[in-house]
Amino acid sequence: MPSFADGRMQIQLLTGIGRAIGTQTLEVTEIRLKRVGGGTVTRSFSPALEIALDGYTHDLVELTTGANLASFEELSMTLARMVLPNGSAVPGPLTVTASLSTDTVRGRETTLRLLLDTNMFFQQSGSLAFDAAAFQHANLASFGGALPTFFSDLVRIDLGSVASRPLGLEGTAARYLYASGDLWALSGTSVPSLMMFNNVGRTRENVDFSAGSVTVSGRQGSYETAELDPRDSLGVLRRLQGNWADLSEVTRNLGSYAAIAFPSSRPGQPDQLVMLVFNGSGNVTECWIGHADFLAGTFDVYPVVQLGVSLSIAGGGSLTSTGDSGQFQFLFGSRPSGMPSSGTFLRYRR
């Protein structure tokens, strides 16, 4: 996983979603993120960034957001013009804005996906105009009033010594679990396939970028997920891309057990929680996952084998946080074999 001192916002612009194909290009000259409390982070483009609205494309824009925790409340894009299929241009400028509610953190990558198509942009009285309702329908329907973001840099956990594991895409027991704070994922050993889950609903049914592939380079690598190409029953389109690193690359001296909370990029959302038990060789023998709600001071967990199927909370209790660490205590249900009834947890930082 690339290492960097500042936080990053990765904006993935996906076009041609759910429409017939034509030819229409949008020219973007600036993208801005507005900080909570004032100030902006800006990325300018000269020449303009050309977005093929009808081409089923995937454009990636990165903005560096600073070395500390930063919270953002608005995204805006300045559009110079739109070029129509006949080559004529619809002039701007036009500024498009949308609400955000997201954090970026030193050393981590926050991703924002924007779905854009020709239904959202049109000519009105000779100038470029924007259909906010069409944009909101495509981008906000499942997440409420702010654009959805997520931490897309994953931490990989080897489940090879865990007795009961969830099934991967091949229908066999998954070898690896991945966590980011907003995403869960699974992959196998020899077949580089990836199954992605969204933390919002905890189950695969609530996420539209559910399958993909993993690239391995030692104890880190990259991944991407895909969707079917509506123009070609055998084709696929890139949907999401990011990086991962092994747990051993980002943690040290965990001991015989570990409880790790992975914060969400969305303020006020629960953390993902991973509870691990290690044998004398340092291999994970028990893995339970769940959520840590620091506003309520509670957590709940279930065996990892339940990921992607009908969930049943197996145990839970209370949390006392002291910043990047704290104490957990089981108060009901069961717990992983070898996990103490109370102990220390860590919050994942880079």
Annotation, overall tally of beta strands: 24
Element pattern in H and E: EEEEEEEEEHEEEEEEEEHEEEEEEE
Low-pLDDT parts are: 200-209
The end-to-end distance, rounded to whole angstroms, is 11 Å
* Sheet with most strands: strand arrangement: 11-12-13-14-15-16-17
C-alpha Rg, in Å?
22 Å
How much of the sequence is in beta strands? over 45%
Mean pLDDT over all positions: 83
Number of helices: 2
Relative helix content: under 10%
Overall shape: it is elongated
What's the story with the biggest beta sheet? 7 strands, mixed, barrel
Structural class: mainly beta
Descriptive report:
- The chain is mainly beta and 350 residues long.
- Helix content is 3%, strand content 56%.
- It contains two helices and 24 strands.
- It has helices at residues 132-139, 247-250, and strands at 7-15, 25-35, 40-52, 58-66, 70-83, 89-104, 109-116, 121-124, 127-130, 149-151, 154-158, 176-179, 183-187, 193-198, 211-217, 220-229, 232-246, 257-262, 271-278, 284-293, 298-303, 315-321, 325-333, 342-347.
- A hairpin with a 4-residue loop joins strand 2 and strand 3.
- The model is unreliable at 200-209 (pLDDT under 50).
